[in-house]
């Protein structure tokens, strides 16, 4: 596998990484394309297959693991798998794009380890764990039990921040967006506009 650059954004749920990634995808000069992850979790709301995720059954996901079709994968919660298909990255590289990921911490670090020179790994840090809980509750997409599981996982994920190339503290969204744009522009070799 070889092609463009890989830009990873990882963070605990509710940190704002998805908002940052969406913003960066709108910046045409960065030449980014989003890597759609695969998952065995059920669809939520209006999610579409191949747009939001490649939705699979647990047995389909395990078959892809056995066939070594993933660049990285993880069982995030019991029978709740997430992963990055090699074919997805190859497809985007064939389009001469830099690939941007919105993935969990463990997956992000695995990709960084496999492609150290081609990868910029960015950790998005929330203001606090309490603020994370507030953001997750505002989403109204998950039960209190799921939110509590995510909060427990967040403490572990926050400890991995130093393993990333860069840390963005998302205390103010506009500042975080500006910082993210600057980091990615530098990494992909785009000159700053005046």
Can you put this structure into words, describing what you see?
It is a single chain. The protein is an alpha/beta fold and 194 residues long. It has one domain (6-188): Rossmann fold. Helices cover 41% and strands 22% of the residues. It has helices spanning 17-25, 58-66, 86-94, 105-114, 129-139, 144-158, 173-188; strands at 6-10, 32-34, 38-39, 54-55, 70-77, 80-85, 98-102, 119-125, 166-169. The protein has a 5-stranded parallel beta sheet, sandwiched between helices. A 4-stranded mixed beta sheet has the order 4-3-6-5, sandwiched between helices. A hairpin with a 2-residue loop joins β5 and β6. α5 (129-139) packs antiparallel against α6. The protein starts with 5 loop residues before the first strand and ends in a 6-residue tail after the last helix.
CATH architecture descriptor text: 3-Layer(aba) Sandwich
Element order, helices and strands?
A: EHEEEHEEHEHEHHEH
Q: Unreliable segments (pLDDT under 50, ≥5 consecutive)?
A: none
Q: Give the helix tally.
A: 7
Classify the oligomer. single chain
Number of strands: 9
Largest sheet, strands/sense/barrel = 5 strands, parallel
β-strand percent reads: 15-25%
C-alpha end-to-end distance:
36 Å
What's the number of domains? 1
Residue-averaged pLDDT, rounded?
A: 90
Kindly name the structural category.
alpha/beta
Q: What would CATH call the homologous superfamily?
A: P-loop containing nucleotide triphosphate hydrolases
Query: What characteristic shape results from the CA principal axes?
Result: globular
Instruction: Give the CATH class.
Output: Alpha Beta
Level of helix content?
40-55%
Query: Whole-number radius of gyration?
Result: 16 Å
CATH names the topology as Rossmann fold
> Largest sheet, order of strands side by side?
2-7-1-8-9
């Amino acid at each position: 596998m070889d092609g463009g650059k890989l830009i990873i954004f990882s963070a605990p749920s509710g940190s704002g990484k998805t908002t940052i990634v969406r913003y960066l995808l709108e910046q045409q000069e960065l030449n980014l394309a989003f890597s759609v992850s695969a998952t065995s979790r059920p669809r939520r709301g209006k999610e579409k297959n191949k747009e939001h995720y490649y939705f699979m059954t647990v047995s389909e996901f395990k078959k892809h693991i056995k066939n070594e079709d993933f660049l990285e994968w993880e069982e995030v919660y019991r029978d709740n798998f997430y992963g990055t298909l090699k074919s997805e990255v190859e497809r985007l590289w064939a389009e001469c794009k830099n690939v941007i990921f919105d993935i969990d911490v463990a997956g992000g670090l695995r990709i960084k380890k496999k492609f150290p020179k081609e990868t910029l790994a960015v950790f998005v840090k929330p203001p606090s764990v309490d603020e994370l809980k507030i953001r997750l509750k505002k989403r109204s997409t998950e039960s209190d039990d799921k939110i509590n599981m995510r909060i427990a996982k967040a403490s572990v994920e926050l400890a991995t921040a130093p393993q990333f190339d860069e840390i963005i503290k998302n205390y103010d969204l506009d500042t975080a967006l500006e910082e993210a744009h600057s980091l990615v522009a530098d990494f992909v070799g785009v000159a700053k506009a005046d």
